[in-house]
Amino acid sequence: MSQVPGLRRARQLTASVLPTRAADAYPSLAAGRLRKLGTAGSTGMLPFSGSGDGAIYFRDGKVIYAESDRTPGPAASAYKAYADGLPPLGRIMAVRAVTEPIIDAALELFTAQARHAKFRSARLPDVGLVSGIEVETLLAEIGRRQRLMKQLSAVLTPDTVISRNPHPRSDSVRISAGQWALLIRVTHGSTPRNVAWDLGRSVFCTVTDAYRLLVLRLLLAAGQVPEHGLAVMSFVRAASLKKGDTMPVINARTAAEDTL
Amino acid sequence: MILNEAEAVLDPVADIEGFLLGCLVDASTGMILASRKDQGDISLPTAAAGAADIANVLSLLAGELPMDGLEDVMVTFRSQLYIIRLMSEDLDPNILLLVILDRARANLAMARREIRNFCVNFAA
After folding, report:
1. What is the DSSP letter of A5?
2. Which chain A residues touch B24 with a CB distance below 8 Å?
3. What is the pLDDT of residues A59-78, one digit of tens each?
């Protein structure tokens, strides 16, 4: 007769036949939930809690909004930018102003492995003319961003303390207005995340710009040896897809689709 | 699709002789904002990511060399031409236009001119 207590024995038996929730199963579980909601054409809200609070809002199976308490949302004026008469580039920039914070929030929820609760109907945020992001498109873009963040993570994460380099290497460096805005906001104890909140920009975008400033040696990251140069970040390496993976395209249109 | 009419924005580029692929890429994040593709065997994510990487590397050079702002980049492969152009100098973050052409059918000078006109009209 076994010496193992009954309850423990029962757990051992069920563990041997039931699928376990492995630590690395989170991405597929959360992605699976989103895919189901997308396929079902759901409308409502999927709340997340735990290491990061937030929610993803669906309308007719598409993601129309996402929020996280660890990322700045879209600017209040972002949705009003969809005014008639904007030139095409203005419309594209307006699309970006809305989608970037949504993808940033979703990325944060996935990266923090926040637990999703029961999907429920909710009053949807007013998103104006934004028609929503396909679930597969969102998941592919999250995957691409996670691969890029992993590439940078040895030196820089959203929560790494950064500081201005008091001894820049070069007399002449050209940086963008956004990078300049980032640089002048870096104070004692700054991290890319809190600078992103200051600027009202996406955390992901702030991390990539901060990394570019590290490469230019205008910024230093905590623990980084100033004399050591950094590799330039590579979007190509982050875009590497296995055969059959979905392309991270916000608005794809192929010749094949045209013929449908 | 984020914006219903966004799919049409690259129609003028798709009319260029030898057109294979065109896309708008957010240079800051590498995200593809819009795309048109007439040939299936080009990996759009890789091509777009490559365009963003090239623009990024060239921007590192800008401070080191006596160069004015980057306008466009042309990469010539044996069978294809890659043309990468900044949509506007004033945008932040900047948006890149990548156009891939069949080298056997494309006229580079004409293509450059059409792409330049497209960018001007796009921003106007």
Report:
1. -
2. 92
3. 999 999 999 999 998 876 66
